[in-house]
Amino acid sequence: MKKRLFVTIQYLEIGGAERSLLGMLNAIDYSQWDVDLFVYEHRGEFMQFIPKEVHLLPEISAYAAINRPMTTILRQGHLQVLLARLLAKIQFARYRKNIKVKDSYAIFQYVADCVTPVLPSLKKFGKYDVAISYLTPHNIVRDKVLADKKYAWIHTDYNTVAVNTQKELPVWSSYDRIMAVSEDVRTSFITSFPSLADKVCVFENILSPAFVREQAQLEDVSSEMPRHEGELIFCSVGRFTYQKNFESAPQICRLLKEKGLRFRWYLIGYGPDEALIKENAAKEGVEDLCIVLGKKSNPYPYMAACDIYLQPSRYEGKAVTVREAQMLYKPVVISRFPTSAAQVEENIDGVIVPLDNEGFAEGLFLFAKDEKKRAEIADYLQQHDFGNEKEIEKLSD
Question: I want to staple 188 with a disulfide (CB 3.0 to 4.6 A). Which of 63, 158, 219, 320 is the partner?
Fold first, then answer.
C-alpha cells in the first residue's frame, strides 16, 4: 500500500523555495507515495508546473486570506482572520519596541500564532503517514493536519535574521524532524535552538539538471537580452527584496562603467524594491546598463543567455538560482554572505567577491576580464553533475 504524504506552502509565486518544492515533488517515487499538495492561495506562475501525479487540494478561502491585504480580507468577509492579524500586529509592535529592532522575521510567527486558531481544520483530508510544512511559520501543519510524522523545512540562515526564539521554540519542538537546506543553515539554526539539535538534518534543495536545461531551450530571449559585440551579459534572478540586495546593482554598474567594462546586467524578478532599483539606476545614470525585465514564469532561457550569473545577496540559506545557473554551465559570481562557502567552491565552480558595492564591483571586474578563469570554471561545470534527486530518499528514512 502506498504511503500518504501531505505538503503545504503559501503560494507558488516565482521564488527559490517554490522552485525547490517543485524539485522535490518531481523527485518523488509515485509508485510509493500518494501526495496531496495544499497551497493556501492558488496563485503564482509555478502552479502550472505541479506534477500531474500530485493531487492539488482545493483552495480554502480562509487560508487564502492569510497573505492578502486587510481591506481585501474585510471585503471578503473573513472578519476573524482580520482581527487575528490586527492582534498580531499589536503584539509584534510591543515586542519590537521593547527590543528596538526595526525589521524582524518575528512578525510571521506572531501572525501564525494569532491566525491559526481561527482557521478551519484540515483533518477532513484524512490521516497521513508524513506531513510537510515547507515554509515558516509552521503552526498550520502542527495544529490542523493529522499525520504520524511531521517535518518542517528551514530555508533561512538564522544568524542573519531577527526572530523571537522563545515564541518559535514550541512550534519547532512539535515536529519530528526539521529539514535544513544546507549544513550552514543547520548550524545557524542549532545556534538559535540548541535543544533541537537532534531533530535537525540536512535535506538539500532538490534540483534536476535535465529539467533546468529543457526549460532553458523553450524560449528565444534574444530580443529582450540582445547581444552586442564586445559586451558581456550579466543576469540575476530573484525577488526584489532587501535580502537579495538588487537595489545595489545600479551603483555596482556605475562602478564597472567607470572601470571601462562593457556589459549589461539584466534583473529577472519582482518585489517591493523594484521601484527603488529603477530609481537608483536613474540616479546613477545606468538605465541602459541595469535593466529590469520583471517577472518571468520561465527564467531559465534568460539565465542560459548570459555570460556570468550574479548573486549579490546580503544573506541566503542556499540560493537555488546559483545552482541552476551552474547546471546551465554559467560561471557564477556571488557576494560573501555568511553561508557563501556552502554555495560555491571558490575559484572552482564560481567566484566569491566582497559584499560591499565597491568590493563586489572590483571582484566582478577582475573576473570578467579574466577570460581564462571564466573558461576554466565553465569547463568544470560541464563536467560535473549537480543533480541531487537522491535527497528524496530521506523522506523514507
Answer: 158
Contact 141, 152 (CB under 8 A): yes
pLDDT digits (tens, 9 = 90+) for 187-241: 989 999 999 999 999 998 888 888 889 889 999 999 999 999 999 999 999 989 9
Decide if 391 contacts 27 (C-beta within 8 A): yes
Residue whose C-alpha cell is 494569532: 114
* CA–CA distance, 374 with 208 (Å, rounded to integer): 24
Task: Dump the DSSP string for 163-202.
Answer: --HHHHHHHHHT-SEEEESSHHHHHHHHHH-GGGGGGEEE
Q: pTM of the entire structure?
A: 0.79
Residue pLDDT, tens place only, 56-69: 999 999 999 998 88
Amino acid identity of residue 183, one-letter, is: E
CA distances from 299 to 146, 213, 220, 322, 328 (A): 37, 11, 12, 12, 12
> Phi/psi at 41 (nearest 5 deg)?
-130, 120
Contact 347, 367 (CB under 8 A): no
C-alpha cell of 151? 517535518
Cβ–Cβ under 8 Å, residues 44 and 18: yes
DSSP string, 260-306: T--EEEEEEEESTTHHHHHHHHHHHT-TTTEEEEE--S--HHHHHT-
> Same CATH topology for 3-206 and 210-382?
yes
Kindly report the CATH number that applies to the domain delimited by 210-382: 3.40.50.2000
- Choose among 272, 279, 255: nearest CA to 357: 255
Report the candidate in 144, 146, 152 with the shortest Cα–Cα distance to residue 118: 144
Class of domain 3-206 as given by CATH: alpha beta
The domains of the chain are located at 3-206, 210-382
